[in-house]
Amino acid sequence: MWDFIWNDFLVTGEPLIYGAMASIVLVTVLIVFVLTYFKLWKWLWDEYLTTVDHKKIGIMYIIAALAMLFRGGVDALMMRTQLALPGMNFLNSVHYNEIFTTHGTTMILFMAMPFIIGLMNVVVPLQIGARDVAFPFLNALSFWTFFFGAMLFNISFVIGGSPSAGWTSYVPMAGPELSPEINQNYYLLALQLSGIGTLATGINFLVTILRMRAPGMTLMKMPIFTWSALITSIIIIFAFPILTIALALMTMDRIFGTHFFTLAGEGMPMMWANLFWLWGHPEVYIVILPAFGVFSEVISTFARKQLFGYKAMVYAMCVIAGLSFVVWVHHFFTMGAGAGVNSLFSITTMLIAVPTGIKIFNWLGTMYKGRIRFNVPMLWALAFIPNFTIGGVTGVMLGMAAADYQYHNTYFLIAHFHGVLIAGTLFGMFAGLTYWYPKMFGHKMNEKIGKVSFWLTVIGFNITFLPQYFLGLMGMPRRTYTIEPEWMPLNLLSTIGAFILAGGFVIFVYNIYFSARYEPREKTGDAWDGRSLEWATTTPVPHYNFATVPYVNSHEAYWDMKETGATTYDESKLEPIHMPNYKGMPIIMSAIMFVASFGLVWHWFWLAIPGLIGVIICMVIRSFDYDEGYHVPIEEIKRTEEQARGRKE
Amino acid sequence: MSEHAELKTGPLEYRKEEGTLTILGFWIFLAAEVVLFSTLFATYAVLFGRYGDATPAPELFEMPIALAMTFLLLTSSFTCGIAIHMMRKESLKGLLIWLSITLALGLGFLGFEIYEFVHYVHEGASIQSSAFWSAFFTLTGTHGLHVTLGIAWCLLIIIQLVRVGLTPTTARKTFVIGLYWHFLDVVWIFIFTAVYLIGMVV
Amino acid sequence: MKNLVSWFKRLFMVPGLFALLLVASGCSGITVLDPKGPVARTQQELIIFSITLMSVIIIVVFVLFFYMIIRFRERPNWTDKDYDPHQHGNTTLEIIWTVIPFIIVAALSVPTVTSLYALEEPPEGSDQEPLVIHADTSNWKWYFSYPEQNIETVNYLHIPEDRPIEFKLSGADSMTALWIPALGGQKYNMAGMQNTLYLEAEEQGEFAGRNANYNGSGFAEHTFTVTSESEEDFNEWVSDIQNNAPELTKERFDQYLEPGLADEAEYSSTHLEYVDFGENDGRSYITDLYSGDLGEDVHLYGGEGGPWEEE
Ligand code: HEM
Ligand SMILES: [Cu+2]
Ligand SMILES: [Cu+2]
């Protein structure tokens, strides 16, 4: 028993891991202490853990994403330290492999995804004039399954050992024959758990956007960020079931002895690569399109001009979404499918550059004849344009299959996808967060500190990743734990850049603290002279969002309202507002799913089966739940609105 | 959130906005299910004929069983349609009767499927035998699991119908399970064609 | 108009210069841009062509970008004169920047497709038949079998210069990729199937070769060296092995298949006698042999004079 706990259950023998364990325990104790000392448990449960309010759920997503960015960032710094010099002995090969696996998986699935979904949650209902999403209960469930999925993934490094097959988890390496240990099961079940939540989010937002828009807001009058959320939701709905199946099949291979991807029994390892990237490529567009949406909003607001070529922007996103499903083979041009197949997928891949190019030029066009303010959200959006262009054109180069034989699996590829993920997704999320921050928290983020953080990040990013293009061309493969002497100078440079980049991130987080304490409170509700409906609400946003929903005439609804002096509070039209009740079920149900998945990871059916039964019981209880929410009485709406608008009217 | 106003005319399940949203959401969910089953069909196609050392499928497949299953499920889809028709006519009793018949037919289908699986395992073809058999059991089994869930869910709805009668909420729930049931029927037709018909021939 | 033309000329000169710079610096260590054989050259030319074209795009975007943010920034003595908040698009412009990318994609597609087809054939220019070498891998070793010569080497490779090599790629376990950057791009080795990769060296010398596709804890050491030598030297090397090296017995080869690292070695027979991993039958050879023992890891450390194994 103790032997099992010490040798198999807990990961032992690594000083770094002991350090991590100690810090986890410490932080947990600290949190519990603070919550207990300040008597915050009840508040936490009532206001957040049981909430179904899209604004609070969005905030929880974003906090989780920032925490995961921290985890993934620490992984990155450890990798860069090991790669700084030849002969470094900081991480051995086994440990390094675990770390790049958790880094990649965390960054894509537990950082980029929740960040995007978080912003969608906060912003989309406000932009379309809705009181919440279509299925608030399901929304909470989505968040909690994501959250527990992320937790499951993150405990792996102290309990049982981290997966180490890369975020792509190619078989047969990741299969039961070559990786019999349980580590890989964490990857499978954690992604499965959070994947279910993501799929539900996709459905939820599609229905919300299709059915709950303000009167007058036709599809072509939607704010562009909402458009990006709509298209992202559609991609999610068509891509995530593929991941669900791929993960399920590998799980069955590993736990129930099936032969989908194995060497024995005539399994077909290549099928995994196909299924994975059939989901994986659309996935990268899931994480970039909402960022595009943010940039469109930010650039138009801060250039004080409406978006240039609104329709072209929408069509471009639709084309990108379509193409994203027919390019997956570019991730394994080197599999030997033949010149015909590779030619076809080269061309489809390069075609994505066309709609992307259109978008870039339209953003430039938006600034033309504008009056540009350089606030921090705008800085992130501006930095995106040149940096993303570099990442994008190298993507085109990678798409040329004959040349890709030389780039594939090298640092050239690493440089490319960080170019698009960091300069695209991450800058986009930072832009979005700083932009909507006043709406979420009632005060801006400090501009001075924000600028320091911005410049460090942008400079650090370029120092880190530009040299990697050259390293790739020099023959340095990705996922190697050690470097050759001739690759040293550029690697050292890259490592220095990584620490600068990390500095930028630390300052960003510090700014959250600083601003909460010292930034002046935001009173108007319209912090940036905005153009779409979210700025029409008061700050803080009342829990029902809109007392009365205005009639919308253009994709810049609030801009029009400002011209006519309309508000979202029309006393003559007040009606009681129907709102859903908060529920404990989503968090409880997700926690039970967590337990069941944990059991499956360890092949402990005595734990997994009761867990599954628990989930079913929850569903039955939910089926019998006829709670239809409550109505906010007119009196209360009046009181709330008059208090918030008192100084205005 | 939805306006609380409840329409006085039109199909019961659409009278509340909540009903409209849920039904649309369910349609979209079914789209995701289509992708899910398509992936399983693709897997089955890729692994087709990869028997390894295990028995090839044509030696085991039995047309009568597959036909019986098809018959049961198709009929159940029909009875389910009648049930929804009864609901439209606001006949709770008719609805309950036809739902129960649907349920019974579904159980019959499941019985045959379980029998079939047990039979194959006896003949030495289990989910662990080879790539083909893994794909076969997973594709048909996933469908079977959906049917099982459908039956359990239908039971819950029958209980609720008995307890609270026909309201916009229970009508919505019934309508949704109806959609689900028809969907499973369609998937089965594809399975019957792609797995049994083609499997017998090739 | 004349202004515009010269402006465009200048625009193309910059990336041209940049590309030249890259080629020049290629000699000083950018392996992929300093090809040592016809395959790598095809790819290098394609890469240089794409870099040139891409630089044009980058320059256009950068120029426009800085023009916009400088010209239209809000500044103290700002006037309304060229502020146009109601401008919502411009169809002509939008058509232009849709069509031009299409043309660029077409321009990139043509050489890509022709190179793709060319790479499926032995490189042109040599009148000799390709030399066939089976390159198989298992965790974390390379086995090069020369069926004609009936010899096999472990973790190193000799090839005659100026003769196309036809690699038959396959493997016993994890998916890997044979990559010799100086000679050309990579292709995957997969159990139970065979890929063909043509490469050729035009120079004598030593080149680094490796598995480029991550396959677990020994990945960084899953490398080999390539020696390209004259026809005579090569033949001498072959007959030396044929005469002096031991035979590769089945027991010996099965030992190799256990996960781990191995030293360079040579044998006067090949493992193809026992198993061909390129055939469907070879797919489960290793799992039949070692079911359960294939999960072993090697712990490689960078320090203290190079990698070594724990325990
Ligand atoms: C602090 C900034 C970052 C640094 C210094 C960094 C560095 C690295 C390094 C060194 C690798 C491993 C290369 C290898 O050995 O194969 C890597 C892989 C990866 N990174 Fe990052 N990274 C950073 C941020 C990000 C972000 C923001 C994302 C996603 C949004 C991301 C996504 C990935 C992915 C997907 C992989 C591939 C993992 C795999 O191959 O399994 N990284 N990164
Ligand atoms: Cu891709
Ligand atoms: Cu293959």
From TrEMBL, chain A:
<dbReference type="Pfam" id="PF00115">
    <property type="entry name" value="COX1"/>
</dbReference>
<feature type="transmembrane region" description="Helical">
    <location>
        <begin position="136"/>
        <end position="159"/>
    </location>
</feature>
<keyword id="KW-1133">Transmembrane helix</keyword>
<keyword id="KW-0679">Respiratory chain</keyword>
<feature type="transmembrane region" description="Helical">
    <location>
        <begin position="284"/>
        <end position="302"/>
    </location>
</feature>
<feature type="transmembrane region" description="Helical">
    <location>
        <begin position="379"/>
        <end position="403"/>
    </location>
</feature>
<feature type="transmembrane region" description="Helical">
    <location>
        <begin position="59"/>
        <end position="79"/>
    </location>
</feature>
<keyword id="KW-1278">Translocase</keyword>
<dbReference type="InterPro" id="IPR023615">
    <property type="entry name" value="Cyt_c_Oxase_su1_BS"/>
</dbReference>
<feature type="transmembrane region" description="Helical">
    <location>
        <begin position="186"/>
        <end position="212"/>
    </location>
</feature>
<feature type="transmembrane region" description="Helical">
    <location>
        <begin position="16"/>
        <end position="38"/>
    </location>
</feature>
<dbReference type="GO" id="GO:0005886">
    <property type="term" value="C:plasma membrane"/>
</dbReference>
<keyword id="KW-0408">Iron</keyword>
<dbReference type="GO" id="GO:0020037">
    <property type="term" value="F:heme binding"/>
</dbReference>
<feature type="transmembrane region" description="Helical">
    <location>
        <begin position="224"/>
        <end position="250"/>
    </location>
</feature>
UniProtKB/TrEMBL annotation, chain B:
<dbReference type="InterPro" id="IPR033946">
    <property type="entry name" value="Ubiquinol_oxase_su3_dom"/>
</dbReference>
<keyword id="KW-0560">Oxidoreductase</keyword>
<feature type="domain" description="Heme-copper oxidase subunit III family profile">
    <location>
        <begin position="24"/>
        <end position="200"/>
    </location>
</feature>
<dbReference type="GO" id="GO:0019646">
    <property type="term" value="P:aerobic electron transport chain"/>
</dbReference>
<keyword id="KW-0812">Transmembrane</keyword>
<dbReference type="InterPro" id="IPR035973">
    <property type="entry name" value="Cyt_c_oxidase_su3-like_sf"/>
</dbReference>
<feature type="transmembrane region" description="Helical">
    <location>
        <begin position="65"/>
        <end position="84"/>
    </location>
</feature>
<keyword id="KW-1133">Transmembrane helix</keyword>
<keyword id="KW-0472">Membrane</keyword>
<dbReference type="GO" id="GO:0016491">
    <property type="term" value="F:oxidoreductase activity"/>
</dbReference>
<feature type="transmembrane region" description="Helical">
    <location>
        <begin position="135"/>
        <end position="162"/>
    </location>
</feature>
<dbReference type="InterPro" id="IPR024791">
    <property type="entry name" value="Cyt_c/ubiquinol_Oxase_su3"/>
</dbReference>
<keyword id="KW-1003">Cell membrane</keyword>
<feature type="transmembrane region" description="Helical">
    <location>
        <begin position="21"/>
        <end position="45"/>
    </location>
</feature>
<feature type="transmembrane region" description="Helical">
    <location>
        <begin position="96"/>
        <end position="115"/>
    </location>
</feature>
Automatic annotation (TrEMBL), chain C:
<keyword id="KW-0472">Membrane</keyword>
<dbReference type="InterPro" id="IPR045187">
    <property type="entry name" value="CcO_II"/>
</dbReference>
<dbReference type="InterPro" id="IPR034227">
    <property type="entry name" value="CuRO_UO_II"/>
</dbReference>
<keyword id="KW-0249">Electron transport</keyword>
<dbReference type="InterPro" id="IPR011759">
    <property type="entry name" value="Cyt_c_oxidase_su2_TM_dom"/>
</dbReference>
<dbReference type="GO" id="GO:0004129">
    <property type="term" value="F:cytochrome-c oxidase activity"/>
</dbReference>
<dbReference type="GO" id="GO:0042773">
    <property type="term" value="P:ATP synthesis coupled electron transport"/>
</dbReference>
<dbReference type="GO" id="GO:0009486">
    <property type="term" value="F:cytochrome bo3 ubiquinol oxidase activity"/>
</dbReference>
<dbReference type="GO" id="GO:0005886">
    <property type="term" value="C:plasma membrane"/>
</dbReference>
<dbReference type="InterPro" id="IPR006332">
    <property type="entry name" value="QoxA"/>
</dbReference>
<dbReference type="InterPro" id="IPR006333">
    <property type="entry name" value="Cyt_o_ubiquinol_oxidase_su2"/>
</dbReference>
<dbReference type="GO" id="GO:0016682">
    <property type="term" value="F:oxidoreductase activity, acting on diphenols and related substances as donors, oxygen as acceptor"/>
</dbReference>
<dbReference type="InterPro" id="IPR002429">
    <property type="entry name" value="CcO_II-like_C"/>
</dbReference>
<feature type="transmembrane region" description="Helical">
    <location>
        <begin position="91"/>
        <end position="110"/>
    </location>
</feature>
<keyword id="KW-1003">Cell membrane</keyword>
